[in-house]
Amino acid sequence: MGDAAHAHAHGEHDAGHCTIWLDGERRRAPIGASVAAALALHGWRGTRTSVSGEPRSALCGMGICFECRVAIDGVPLRRACLVTVREGMEVSTHHA
Amino acid sequence: MRELACDLLVVGAGPAGIAAACAAAERGKKVLVLDENPGAGGQIWRAGTHAPPRAAEPWLARFRASGAELRSGCAVVEGDAARQTLWAQDAEGLLRTRAESIVLATGARELFLPFPGWTLPGVLGAGGLQALAKSGWPVRGKKIGVAGSGPLLLAVAAWLVEHGAHVAFVAEQAPLGRLARFAASLAFQPRKLAQLAALRWKLRGVPQLFSSWPVRANGRAHIDSVELATDGEPQGFLVDALAVGFGLVPETALAEQLGCALDASGAVAVDAEQRTNVERIYAAGEPTGIGGVENALLQGELAGASAAGDARAAHTFARRAARARRFGRALERAFALREELREMPDDDTIVCRCEDVRWDAARELDSARETKLQTRCGMGPCQGRVCQPALHFLKGGRADRRRPPLLPLTLGELAELAADRTTLEHETSR
Ligand SMILES: Cc1cc2nc3c(=O)[nH]c(=O)nc-3n(C[C@H](O)[C@H](O)[C@H](O)COP(=O)(O)OP(=O)(O)OC[C@H]3O[C@@H](n4cnc5c(N)ncnc54)[C@H](O)[C@@H]3O)c2cc1C
Ligand code: FES
């Protein structure tokens, strides 16, 4: 059984949410939410490590600072504040 | 490469871009609007997980009915003014867009100034936090400090209160006296006064501090408290987040790349019909100077009508636009940044967040431009959008002019772009 079907059978699916993968962990996110918001909602605080090793996360919320960058479905350097969650999306904060 | 052609290409689907698109499409033009953010509405009207504000509804409805086509998630990365061509990147890769005329309605971005601890997660822009919250970032029940400068602080604080946050303070760097004089000058603008009164009512019970700015954000992997200096007196607050922005700066990167001249304030210079100095390129809204939403709508409508060749309509809008622009200037003077903010960073404070360049490495260098050459400041993925305006404020001197492309592209995309430029040059010289 696929994951979406599995979620459905267990009644975890509702019209307002979708299922996404955050660093390999399965989570639900409101439809229309940005990836940055989904990460924050689920307790991800720093979402990237700076060149001198500091934790960083979203600053501008509008696509200019790149502090929120993550890999989405294998594509690096995606700005999490600009991308809306989609069913089955895989987000990685380790390869940004 | 995919190619889209139209009569009018509008960059930015904020109020200015929407108004320009409506004005031109309703006059029979084929209009294409590109915006890198999801959905229409720009900074003030974007929806996400929340419904757009009521004021946006008539405009969004008019936009839908106008026949203009919107492409969201589509960022313009480079342009060729002589060939009326812009290249954009969306989820599928690069595409080429060509048009008779172009309206640049790229809006503004927040001015971020460095102070100790500002790089901690949980320190966000003021407009930045609001934008994220509109897309579902959790604020309900959180204790949030709001700091920096400008009318946006009150708007953001009121929005946060309405959405269940506990706003710990609003710290405005400008002195109360200067702002009181500005408010008094609004006596003949009852709408603006009413807006101000409504904001203050929503914020009753929230400490509003003047001549106040952040000295340090504390926390290990996330902010947990902030120290302010208010009239020179230290004051500490426990917070879950700090929303801090020192005003807005016009987003002029694309305009500059296309060769549009800037005025002395660093905004795109336009004539009474929103024309830039580059033929058939217009600019509308915040790129021409910070003036708020009414100003953006008027300028957009004006640019769209003018680009569609309707000089009469353009003339009527021009007078109202001039009045809105004067208001923008008065606002800028009232919230002018004070000298002391230049002392905020200490030696160890990071000034370039992409390359982790610290203030002690940048302080002695002459200008923003020199700093970029010597320290890699501004060479990271944000292409200097965050650090260059900050260094410009801290040091004076002109900010560095950006070179294409506007966003970091992969090597493959850069090669594709270069090849397409050459193809286009051949096609058009034949
Ligand atoms: C973060 C932020 C929050 C704000 N919040 C408020 C508020 O709550 N209330 C208020 O009254 N005012 C607010 N403002 C001020 C606001 O900018 C103006 O009131 C008004 O929205 C300006 O309209 P505009 O059309 O000029 O720009 P914007 O609304 O900023 O629209 C510009 C659009 O251009 C797009 N864009 C820019 N560059 C490119 C590119 N290269 N490719 C593709 N698309 C591009 C952006 O994605 C954006 O959607 C805010 C400003 C900012 C920066
Ligand atoms: S938060 Fe700045 S680019 Fe996403």
List keywords for this structure.
heterodimer; A: 96 residues; alpha+beta; Ubiquitin-like (UB roll); five-stranded mixed sheet; two-stranded antiparallel sheet; 29% strand; B: 430 residues; alpha/beta; FAD/NAD(P)-binding domain; 3 domains; seven-stranded mixed sheet; five-stranded parallel sheet; 19 strands; binds flavin-adenine dinucleotide; binds FE2/S2 (inorganic) cluster
Overview of this structure, please?
The complex is a heterodimer of chains A (96) and B (430). Chain A has 96 residues and is of the alpha+beta class. Chain A has one domain: 2Fe-2S iron-sulphur cluster binding domain, sarcosine oxidase, alpha subunit, N-terminal domain (Ubiquitin-like (UB roll), Roll). Chain A contains two helices and seven strands, in the order H-E-E-H-E-E-E-E-E. Chain A is globular. With 430 residues, chain B is an alpha/beta fold. Chain B has three domains: 191 residues, FAD/NAD(P)-binding domain (3-Layer(bba) Sandwich), CATH 3.50.50; 132 residues, FAD/NAD(P)-binding domain, CATH 3.50.50.60; 57 residues, no CATH class. The longest helix of chain B has 24 residues. The mean pLDDT of chain B is 91. At the A-B interface, helix 2 and strand 4 of A face strand 8 and helix 4 of B. The structure holds flavin-adenine dinucleotide and FE2/S2 (inorganic) cluster. The site of flavin-adenine dinucleotide has 37 residues of chain B, from helix 1, strand 2, helix 2, strand 4 and strand 7.
